[in-house]
Amino acid sequence: MKEAKLRARKYEKATVVDDSKMAEFIKEIDGMELVFKKKANEKGSLFASLKSHDIAEELAKKLSKNIDEEYIVLKDPIKKVGEYVVEVKAGESKGKLK
Questions:
Q1: What's the pTM?
Q2: Residue 27 · residue 76 · CB < 8 Å
Q3: What is the C-alpha separation between 88 and 73, in angstroms, rounded?
Q4: How far apart are CA 46 and CA 13, in angstroms?
Q5: At what angle do helices 52-63 and 19-29 cross, to 10 degrees?
Q6: How far is 3 from 72, CA to CA, in rounded Å?
Q7: In what order do the strands lie in the sheet containing 72-73?
Q8: By the number of CB atoms within 10 A of the CB, which of 10, 48, 69, 82 ranks highest?
Q9: Pairing of strands 93-97, 86-90
Q10: Which pLDDT tens digit goes with each residue over 10-65?
Q11: 2 forms bridges with which residues in the sheet?
Q12: How many other CB atoms are there within 10 angstroms of residue 90's CB atom?
C-alpha cells in the first residue's frame, strides 16, 4: 500500500516537476542553509528525528516552490542536534544544503 501511494505521488509530481526544472532549482538552492527548531534532550538527541520530508517542507515554505522528497538524499534521519550537509540530486544535477 505504501509503495502504491509513493508511485501515485511520483506520477503526480512528474507532471509538475521534471528533471530539467529540478536542475535549475538545485542551482538555486545549492549552498543554502536551513534552520530547524526541534525539541531535544540535554545530550542533544532530538525527540523527533528530522527526515527528508521535513526538509522538503521547509524548502517549500522558504522558497514557495515544492520539491519532492525523493530528490533529497538523506541516508538516515537526523537524530542529533548539529550541522549537517544534505545532498539534493536530480539526474546528473547535484547540490548541497546545510
A1: 0.73
A2: no
A3: 6
A4: 31
A5: 80
A6: 18
A7: 72-73, 86-90, 93-97
A8: 69
A9: antiparallel
A10: 555 544 455 667 778 888 888 889 999 999 999 999 999 999 989 988 888 888 87
A11: none
A12: 21
What is the C-alpha to C-alpha distance for residues 51 and 16, in angstroms, rounded to an integer?
A: 23
User: C-alpha distances in angstroms, 45 versus 23, 73, 87?
Assistant: 34, 21, 22
Question: 42 to each of 22, 45, 46, 59, 80, how far by Cα in Å?
Answer: 39, 8, 10, 28, 11
For residue 90 the three cell numbers come to: 536530480
pLDDT for position 81? 94
The enclosing domain of 55 has a CATH number of 3.10.430.100
CA–CA distance, 3 with 47 (Å, rounded to integer) = 27
Q: Which domain holds residue 31?
A: 2-97
* Composition of the chain by helix, strand, coil, percent to 5: 40, 20, 35
Total domain count, the chain: 1
